[in-house]
């Protein structure tokens, strides 16, 4: 697949795919923080936070390319945690870069999630494309800011923040109202500290 031609022979779109891996039982790790899940993201080479993945090579299907990128970037073992069409969540176009972006999400057990996270630092691209795994703080402390709200004030690549929040609701990790509150508290934090 690799590229898809636009209408009327326009320049082709390239395909890119990124993926969220999570375990629903975050409370087992930090009960005192009421952690709602363990969600894996990463610090990219460019300083943005994003999900692992990347651009498909010519001739690759999206799932093949995604599994290749995940192996390179986070050392995901494709024989154990291969992404399939079943894991597809959404696709959209970014007009400026002529990319068709595909997003995937996979639920794993807590043990698998921690093992996947540990493998990241042995991956081929650790230290240059990927500067480190990140666990999303899936809780909010009593001041209503520390935890997820402040995390959301970081810089995210492309639509990674929207993809994160979309999956948190889709996978029933948080309700729409809880997410909205976290976003409002993030804005309050930014208004005070990030003018
Ligand atoms: O997590 C993401 N969510 C949405 N869009 C993303 C995400 N990560 C990157 N991107 C966008 C921005 C980039 O222009 C393209 C290509 O992704 P990238 O991972 O940088 O691709 P390569 O590793 O260079 O193949 O997607």
Write a structural description.
- Keywords: Hydrolase, Nucleotide metabolism, Nucleus, RNA-binding.
- Its cofactor is Co(2+).
- It comes from Lingula anatina.
- The protein has a domain at 3-137: Nucleoside Triphosphate Pyrophosphohydrolase (Alpha-Beta Complex), CATH 3.90.79.
- 31% of the residues lie in helices and 24% in strands.
- It has six helices and eight strands.
- A hairpin with a 4-residue loop joins strand 3 (38-44) and strand 4 (49-50).
- The protein is globular.
- Residues 16, 18, 50-51, 53-55, 97, 99, 101, 129, 157-160, 163 line the site of the ligand O=c1[nH]cnc2c1ncn2[C@H]1C[C@H](O)[C@@H](COP(=O)(O)OP(=O)(O)O)O1.
- Ligand L6YBMIIZ binds at residues 16, 18, 50-51, 53-55, 97, 99, 101, 129, 157-160, 163.
